[in-house]
Design goal:
mainly beta; about 50% strand
């Protein structure tokens, strides 16, 4: 039996586990089951996971303050009251297009929120990547099929994203003060020749990019110049996204999915959809608060 450098963090099975993010104020790791319309929150110190049913598909979470969270959903950005679970739509995003939904998203160090969309059936070029801050929404990059890998350098001067359909991880220069691009995207990593995909990513304190390799059963680490410096084998074929967590941001969680698997595939991949933790310390960063 193959040994892995990860251990099981949570055995809740998600069809499409995505968007993990750690709330340092409550010491809770949150993630979404997009297809299952669920928000999951694991209390790290207590080791208890709470599952919250949602009325719509949501794909990512950010934190406003102690009481409020921001969810990226199929109709736009929603404030969630943590105590009651009540949702309030504050910024529609493609709400008039029932064929699309939100996908990957992350908060820039300036407290801006980059949010990607995609077709619910991964229709070609149906999605985009948007910038949101203090009530203002701008579309940054159109014609995206599967938006993923939205993340930023520690100083906010660089942004990253991928269209997983194309398999190309892009780097773009940004204004650190507001998270808006200041140049055109350039190719950082080209996996267009592979049948597997670049999924969610997060950037550590050294600027290295930790990427979930969908279909590749691995967590791949890239230097800021795009060199692959490490590959960590995972016990699931379809990892989706990593996130730093813990009071010191020195732990790393990885979500996964069983989406689009046949019964035979799931039998061969029995851990699919569960959430894992890397078995060593990392030099991570807590997510910034988002400005709504």
């Amino acid at each position: 039996m193959q040994s892995f450098e990860v251990e099981l963090l949570d055995d809740t099975v998600c069809e499409l586990g995505e968007g993990p993010a750690y709330d340092a104020l409550s010491d809770t790791l949150f993630w979404l089951d997009i297809s299952g319309k669920r928000l999951l929150g694991r209390e790290i110190a207590g080791g208890i996971t709470h599952v919250h049913e949602l009325p719509c598909m949501a794909s990512a979470i950010a934190f406003i303050d102690e009481q409020r969270q921001l969810l990226a959903t199929e109709t736009g950005l929603m404030i969630r009251d943590r105590a009651s679970g009540q949702l309030e739509l504050i910024k529609p995003i493609e709400a008039d297009n029932p064929a699309t939904r939100s996908n990957d998203a992350r908060v820039h160090p300036s407290a801006a929120f980059w949010v990607g969309t995609m077709g619910k059936k991964a229709e070609r070029k149906a999605g985009s990547i948007y910038w949101y801050r203090r009530g203002e929404l701008r579309r940054l990059f159109p014609d995206i099929t599967v938006s993923n890998s939205i993340c930023f350098s520690p100083d906010g001067s660089l942004g990253y994203f991928v269209d997983s359909f194309k398999g190309i991880l892009f780097r773009v220069e940004c204004d650190p003060s507001n998270g808006l691009p200041t140049g055109e995207p350039t190719v950082l990593v080209d996996h267009s020749h592979l049948s597997t995909g670049i999924d969610g990513s997060v950037v550590d304190n050294d600027g290295n990019i930790w990427n979930a390799h969908w279909g590749g059963a691995s967590l791949d680490v890239y230097s800021p110049d795009g060199k692959q410096i490490e590959t960590i084998a995972l016990p699931v074929r379809q990892p989706t996204c990593p996130a730093f967590f813990g009071p010191n941001a020195d732990r790393l969680a990885i979500t996964s999915a069983w989406e689009n698997m046949s019964e035979a595939d799931r039998a061969d991949d029995p851990e699919a959809g569960k959430t894992f933790e890397l078995n060593r310390k990392v030099s991570g960063r807590h997510e910034p608060r988002v400005l709504i």
